Amino acid sequence: MARQVPAEAVFEALGQVKYPGYPSDIVTLGIVEAAEPIPTGGYAITLRQATEREEVIRELAEKVHQALTHDLGIAKVELRVHRVEAELGEKTGRVRLEGTKHIVAVGSGKGGVGKSTVAANLALALVSLGLSVGLLDADIYGPSVPMMFGVGEERPKSAGGQNFYPIEKYGVKMISIGFFLGEKAPVIWRGPMVMGAVRQFLKDTLWGSQDFLIVDLPPGTGDAQLTLAQQVSIDGVVIVTTPQDVALLDATRAVKMFRQVHCPILGVVENMTYFVCPDCGERDELFGHGGGERMAKEEGTRVLGRLPIYPEVREAGDAGKPIVIANPKHPASVAFIELARRVVEGVAD
What we know:
It contains twelve helices and twelve strands.
């Protein structure tokens, strides 16, 4: 019988294989599902299908064979490609995330409503209440967390095999695709690859013990939301919207989607509720009035908070120091801390 190469060595070798067209390796990106020894002394490698392009799959297969047979000396490599299909409302496989007491998702139906700003400041507000917090940036196509925390140049450290340590700053443990691809690199992925990344961020990040994991979801009702709902038990969803009708319509769709996949709605955050002129003090409701309240009432939930437009909030996020840290006594920070208290109460109900 041929000498059996340890699985750790196989994953280490696969960790040197770059996904075609990307600077990151296939282990980091969650492409490698399994590496199982076979009786001949070889290995069966299962890869998650990340593209429909046959030429990319062939190139990836060649790279895997090169890394394992030529570089590592494995006599036989069987390559299997697993096609992933998402099923709406699927509940199988949903478990509690080990070491994490509560998972709260922050979502929106529409982009540009300040969802990532709310997620980042909510995480920091929970820390200010004495809780331990993780922040998972599941917005694969538009990751904002690295910039908002000023850690865009940092890279997570490997813990051996498929596991890695989150980046930590201001008391929040974070993971984001932006740490692996760089802040300005475009993410041109099909659904299965997005699903694989969210899965890996959940299961392969060494979060340790924490009271809350806040998940910053992308806008809409797509692959990232379904993957999160199917993989782990979510204690509640916070829906972020602005008062304008088009945002409220999309937010309503998000509420209905999360309920369809059996995720409880904690409530609605109405962002950009109004703007106060710094010179004259006049209040201007730029995006309409009362929309969040109407939507919450129609959907049988509640308004968790109303957040006015403060230029300081945007400036703090752009500077890599969110407002809750930059100025804890600012009215916006006070509002975020009150939001955090209501979220804690909501998951305890």
